[in-house]
Amino acid sequence: MHKKLLEAEPYPPSEDTFFLADHIKDEKGKSALDIGAGSGYLSSILEKSFSLVVGTDLLFNVLRKQDYHTANNICCNGADVINHQFDLIVCNMPYLNTENISDVRTDGGKNGLEIPMKIIDSAKSCIKPKGKFIYVTSSLSDFKKLISYTKLAGFDVGILAKKKLFFEELILVRGIRLLS
Ligand SMILES: C[S@@+](CC[C@H](N)C(=O)[O-])C[C@H]1O[C@@H](n2cnc3c(N)ncnc32)[C@H](O)[C@@H]1O
User: Fold this and answer.
1) Residue 138 near ligand 1, beta carbon < 6 Å
2) Considering the chain, what percentage of its residues have pLDDT values greater than 70?
3) What domains does the chain contain, in order, with CATH numbers?
4) CA distance 56 to 59
5) Residue 115: CB within 6 Å of ligand 1?
6) What is the pLDDT of residues 139-155, one digit of tens each?
7) Whole-number pLDDT of residue 105
């Protein structure tokens, strides 16, 4: 891995983090997974109402330097090494529309879809039937295509909330995993 990535600092909790946090703070259940946990801010909120919370991140150094220390972290792509079905999965996606992935913390690749699609592929088998997948994307990405992709992955999908910022609109998507 590139030296710059090995030394990367966690993505600091930002507008998109707080937007997702506001909508998950009242969620309850046995187990929750925070994909792309970064600073651990969202995992630490989930730890208040779920007995098992796992965070994953592609960057080992980011997990090592978490500001919000959480109990269970795994360094992997999406949920690739996890063999558990969670009640809830959350993800503040790296959604920026970029030609290349130069900053893993924010870049989503072409149309802001490449990385979010990989994360959805990886997450879908780790959610209980009727479990929830809540993620943040943005008007800066092709969010309509991402929503269609989430439907095809076996979720009943809707937009939970939107938030206008100066240069973009944040979009919170909720998928409920269908039974079959
Ligand atoms: C926008 S930041 C969100 C960080 C934190 N969850 C928050 O809301 O503040 C996205 C995080 O996803 C991680 N990430 C990017 N691609 C990933 C992948 N394929 N699998 C797991 N984590 C990934 C990045 O390293 C980064 O920490």
Assistant:
1) no
2) 96
3) 3-177 (3.40.50.150)
4) 9
5) yes
6) 999 999 999 999 999 99
7) 94
